[in-house]
Amino acid sequence: MNAALNDVREFHRRIGAAVADSPVLLPCHRESSSEMANAIRGLLTRCQSMADDGSSLLARLCLALEEMAEWAEAHAAGDLVAAADAWGDRLYVLLGDAVAAGLPATAIFDEVHRSNMSKTAAQAGSLGKGTKTGAFHRPRLREILFPAAEGPSAED
Fold first, then answer.
1. Which phi and psi (to 5°) does residue 131 adopt?
2. Which of 28, 51, 74, 78 qualifies as a cystine partner to 83, CB 3.0-4.6 A?
3. By C-alpha distance, which of 133, 101, 99, 105 is closest to 117?
4. pTM, whole model, 2 decimals?
């Protein structure tokens, strides 16, 4: 995981996004964070009512929404320990998505990082996202998800 964190740190520096050297809460307005947490909880309630159909996707979306709400609530409360717990749970849910879907997480991450590094510094109002310019290269995920068959083809 250290390699992935270093990659994200490299990308953040490239686009001028925040990089903290020690654990801190993200700067926020507590009232807005609380309102957002409540809005996410509302989405979670709706998701839970729809997830009763046995949908694995909706069940996993509910998990993600719950952890995102906890992340916002921790910031609203000014609680770094709760924020760290929510962050860890969010990461666990994301990795669980990869496990549940059989996705090659490391290869996908590496390719998305390669693509992201072709972006330029974020523009004002872009919410910290890099900017896609003419130098941007889309991630080549098809090759990762559907690698060419090894060995001779069926026609040989």
1. -100, 130
2. 74
3. 133
4. 0.83
